[in-house]
Amino acid sequence: MNNFCDLFQRFGDAEPDYGLGDSQFWLALKRLIIAVEPLIEVSDIPQASLDQPLTPEIARKAKFRLTPAGVAVLNNEVDSVTLNGIDQWLGGVHLEISGRSWRWEEESGHLKSE
User: Fold this and answer.
1) Of all residues in the chain, what percent carry a pLDDT higher than 70?
2) Neighbouring residues of 39: CB distance < 8 A, sequence distance ≥ 6
């Protein structure tokens, strides 16, 4: 299990280009928790906390753990969008399941369209 502060620090160290604040990171974690097929689960806070903005109490108390689906996504056994769909604006791009999907191709270092 990891607490919020540890995860936030690790994410910032691993992906400094994102520049997410703690509240943005909390929103991203909540999307993974409340997904149709949750990829992480949270404990040590009331379930109602998921409806709240990040508070110091949530940041101190919340503990996170990958679900079996989350482990499968990390191991490239299943695709997160296939499991949960997507309907999100990222920058000026509307990501949705009915549209074309884009994936990063590690070998070529480019985006590919599916």
Assistant:
1) 96
2) 32, 33, 66, 67, 69, 70, 73, 80, 83, 84
Q: Which of 71, 83, 66 is nearest to 29 (CA)?
A: 66
Question: Cα separation of 65 and 89, whole Å?
Answer: 26
Residue 101's Cα: distance from chain center in Å?
18
For the chain, the straight-line distance linking the first and the last C-alpha, in angstroms and rounded, comes to 35
- pLDDT value for 30: 95
SS3 75: coil
Alpha-carbon distance 35 to 52, whole Å? 17
Q: Two tokens at 105?
A: 């191709």
pTM of the model: 0.82
| pLDDT tens, residue by residue, 22-38 | 999 999 999 999 999 99
